[in-house]
Structure prediction request, 227 residues.
Amino acid sequence: MVDKLKLSEAGSFSEVLELVMSDSDYLSGIEPDGSGWDMGNWPGFDFREFQGWVEREKFFEIAAIDGRHLPLRIIQTDPRQFEITTPDTQPVNVKFTISPVSAKEFPTIMIGKSIIGQEIILRNQREPLSWHQIPSYFQDLAKSLGVNNVNKVVSDTEGKTWANFLCSVLKSRQFFPTHFVLTDAMVRDRLELEEDESFSDRDRLYAEMDITQEELIMLAYSDFIIS
Prediction:
């Protein structure tokens, strides 16, 4: 289980994400009373055996009181091998990416550090800034976490609103674990296997990593700016 003192000391978004990704029992002990749930051993993907620059992937879900929910994924990368240069030519070494699994109107954000070690939140300039606002059905949760939606003026500094909300949700553990896996057809397609060819769990893991890596490379060519 995550040490509570250590969690409370995590000040930056990167530090919170580091705890989330490194501890499979991060959510242990917060199961709803009477639910019978066990949130220990939160599954995710660990790609480090392949010694590439995409290291881990985990999925989580934010629930609202009206029954809506939003599945998201966290991707951890080696910041020494994943650098994005913003339009102002400032290089940012990206360690974490958070993106929606399937929802259309939510942003992808990247969290990294500048060359002087300052934490940087990046957003894609091609995405509407309104996506970075907290949706109305999450407002009660945001209020309980002390996160205010102040996106009344369009500016890049307010692009951090969604990032601040996600950081607060993760730090307070106000979410549920979830997990997604590739279909057999997707694995075979990625590995260029015939329809009747078998594959191992390690093959499935490699296919997941390869697809994730390709998606991140495509994102790296988008117009990311500093929020």
